[in-house]
Known about the structure:
By secondary structure, the protein is α+β, with helices and mostly antiparallel strands. The protein contains six helices and 27 strands. The protein folds into four domains: 62 residues, no CATH class; 88 residues, Immunoglobulin-like (Sandwich); 101 residues, Immunoglobulin-like (Sandwich), CATH 2.60.40.3710; 154 residues, Beta Barrel (L,D-transpeptidase catalytic domain-like), CATH 2.40.440.
Amino acid sequence: MEKRVMTVGKHRKGIAAVAVLLSGVLTLTACGGDDEGGSGSGDKGKDKSSDSQSKADKAAADEASEARISIKPKDGSDTASINTGGKVTVSKGKLTEVAMVAEQSGTAVEGAIAADGKSWKPAAALERATKYEVKAVAKDSDGREAHEVSTFTTVSPENSFIGYFTPDDGKTVGVGMPVSINFDKPVSDKKAVQSAIKVNSSSGQKVVGHWFSATRLDFRPEEYWKAGSKVTVDLNLDGVDASNGVTGVQDKKVTFNVGHAQVSTVDVKSKKMTVVRDGKTIKTIPISAGSAENPTYNGEMVISEKFKETRMDGSTVGFTDKEGKGEYDIKDVPHAMRLSTSGTFIHGNYWGSDGIFGSANTSHGCVGLNDAKGAGDPKQDGAWFYENSMLGDVVVVKNSPDDTIKADNGLNGWNMSWDKWQGGSAV
C-alpha cells in the first residue's frame, strides 16, 4: 500500500491527494469499530476496506502518466560529469518543460528540448564543484503529465583533471607542430589516459604518443606532417581515472590544418639561413647566432610563439652579472619567435651593426636577423622571416659547438629517434 502511494505521488499531485484521503479512510476503519461498535474484525468490514482500496488503486492507475522521465546522474550524486550531468530523457512521452539552475547562485542553465521531444541537455559544459537542480515535465499520448526533480553536484577541481593542448582548434600550422598536452595533475594511469586520446591525420600517417613526464604527453608521426593535411584530436577523458580519486572531465574534439612545409636551416659556421618551402629554396638570409661563450643549440626546433615586439631580460634565463642584474634587458625586440622553453628565439636585431650578420656570431644563444627598431620596416630580413613563418614551422640549427636541444625543451620532439619515441608510449 505505502509503496503504491509514493509511486503515484511522484507523477501527479491530484493523485497524491486521493491517496492521502484514501489513507485516512483506511486509518479510521482500522482504529474504529464497525457501525455496531464492534472490533472491526468481521468479514463485512474487510470487504468494504478491500473494495475501496481496489477502486482507489484503479483510479490512480488510470490517472497516472505513462511518461517516464530519467535525469542523469542519479539524484544526490556528488561527482557528476560536467559534460553529461543534467541530461534528461523520456520514454512513452515527450518533454514539455525542463528547468535547470545552479542552486547557490540561482543562475539558469541554458539548454533546449530536442525536436522529437525525447531529450534535453545543457548547451555547454557545467561548472565544476557546483550543485544543480533539474525539474522536468513530460506528457504521454493522452496528455497526462509526469514530473521529476533531481539534484546533483559536479566533480570538484581537486578530484578532476584537464589537459591544456597545443595547437588550438581550427588553427593552420606548419608541418613540425606536434600535439602537446599538459595535464594540470600528475597522471599515474598513463595507459588509461593515453588510450582515451585519439590523434588521426587525413594523410594516414601513424601517430604515436610519448610521455615526457607525468603531466606531459605529446603526439607526432615518424616524419613531419604532410602539407595540406588535417589532424583531428579527440579527447575522451570524461570519467577516465588518472590516479586514485582524480577523474577526467574533458570530452572535446579539435582539429587543425597543416599548411605549408617550411624548414629553415641555420648554418652556424657559415652564418646563413636557407629557407625552404614545399621543397624549394625561397630565400637565403645572413644571421648572427650564439657566440662561442653562449652557443646556440643544434637540432630541429619548432616555432611555438610569435611576437611582433617583446622584452628580453637576461636575468630570466640565467644571464646575470655579479650584482644579479641581467646582462641585457631589451624592451622592444622586434619579430621574435620562440624555439625553446629555455629561451631560444629567432628574432630581429636592430642594436647590432649591419656588419655582424653573415660574418660574426655574437648573441647569447638566439639566432639574430637584421631588423629595424619598432618592427616597422618590412624590407628588413627579420620582418620578412616573421611575416613568412607560421607556428609549427621548423628551424634546424647545425654546425654549432653546443649540444643538440633536448626533445622536451619546447615542442622539439623531432630530436628523438622514432624507436625511442615509441618507447615512451603507454599503449
